[in-house]
Design brief:
With about 325 residues, the protein is mostly beta strands. It has a single domain, classed as Beta-galactosidase, Chain A, domain 5, CATH 2.70.98. It contains one helix and 21 strands. Strands 6-7-8-9-21-17-16-11-14-13 form a ten-stranded antiparallel sheet, covered by helices on one side. Strands 5, 10, 12, 15, 18, 19 and 20 form a seven-stranded antiparallel sheet that branches. A four-stranded antiparallel sheet has the order 1-2-3-4, with no helix packed on it. The longest helix has 12 residues. The two termini are about 35 Å apart.
């Protein structure tokens, strides 16, 4: 039916079972033989904006965790056990209506949690709601943060908006309150971050991170990001991810709800929810909103980035 997303099961690069969720403007492919994993997101007739690792496609049942690419769902903060719990087996799915599908991973017995992703595609246009849910299915309480990671294809530019600048108030007689002297940003660098890394540009209104296939090492930062969106520009297509920051909540990794990582293969755009103590039967959710726009022009200066944002994002 025109204007209603199509839902069908298709083959994709070696996997026999993948759910295709599409309208006239965009298409998503979600693996059913492994996951939950959104392996592809593209405009109709366009290219996949997500990174794929060809040697890991079409396979399942591995004894070690696989990167594969696409969009995945983790429990944070990062450790060597629960974070890298295997997602190499099949998932179930349930259509919740003509525009929405829920994907459910079997319970992760060793850690007592179960992950789900619900996708809701707009009848037209590129807007997609991506709702992540972790339920404590174990017998004891657990602490975690929901963590959504999108692995972008190489060669693009990540655009991270910064809060507006404000002047120093000067002496106390000029200040309205103590808040005039307070910091308004949290910046967390990882040990392998380097301020001289040419992939980074720290501007007045934006931070940008360039994915470089010739890079010799990784880089990563985290931010308490309150402006609600981050974008990735690659080959004329702009991917926009929106997510929330909840003031006063305890976020992982030093207090950040956004992290980004890149190496020579890809770039990750990551959102995190607050740390939560989940009692048995309790759940926590993390919502992202995605959009995809064709016809985006290259941008390097802040004036060009302003124009890109005004045209496609609509929020500064």
């Amino acid at each position: 039916m025109k204007g209603v997303p199509a839902v069908d099961v298709v083959e994709y690069k070696g996997w026999k079972r993948n759910l295709r969720l599409a309208n006239a403007d965009v298409e998503l492919l979600i693996t059913l033989d492994v996951g939950p994993r959104i392996i592809s997101f593209r405009t109709t007739g366009g290219h996949n904006v997500f990174k794929e690792f060809p040697d890991q496609l079409g396979k399942s049942g591995e004894s070690e965790w696989q990167m594969r690419g696409g969009h995945r769902f983790w429990a944070g903060p990062e450790d060597l056990t629960r974070t890298y719990a295997l997602d190499n087996g099949p998932v179930t799915h349930r259509e919740l209506g003509p525009t929405a599908v829920r994907f459910t991973q079997p319970p992760d017995a060793p850690y007592g949690i179960q992950k789900e992703i619900e996708l809701t595609v707009a009848p037209r246009g590129s807007h997609v709601d991506v709702l992540h849910r972790i339920t404590n299915v174990g017998a004891t309480a657990t602490e975690l943060a929901p963590w959504a990671l999108t692995v972008m294809a190489p060669g693009g530019l990540e655009i991270i908006p910064l809060p507006p600048k404000r002047p120093h108030p000067g002496p106390p007689k000029n200040a309205k309150s103590a808040a005039d002297y307070a910091a308004d940003q949290v910046f967390i660098p990882w040990p392998f971050f380097d301020f001289t890394d040419p992939r980074w540009t720290f501007g007045r209104r934006y931070v940008t991170l360039r994915q470089d296939p010739k890079a010799t090492g990784p880089t990563k930062i985290g931010l308490a990001h309150k402006l609600g969106w981050v974008a990735y520009l690659n080959a004329g297509v702009l991917f926009v991810k929106r997510f929330r920051y909840e003031s006063g909540k305890p976020y992982p990794d030093g207090g950040v709800n956004f992290e980004t990582f890149t190496n020579a293969d890809m770039l990750e755009i990551e959102s995190l929810g607050p740390m939560m103590r989940l009692e048995p039967g309790q759940k926590v959710e993390l919502l992202e909103e995605w959009e995809l726009f064709s016809g985006a022009q290259p941008a390097s200066t802040e004036a060009e980035l302003d124009k890109l944002v005004e045209t496609f994002v609509g929020r500064k």
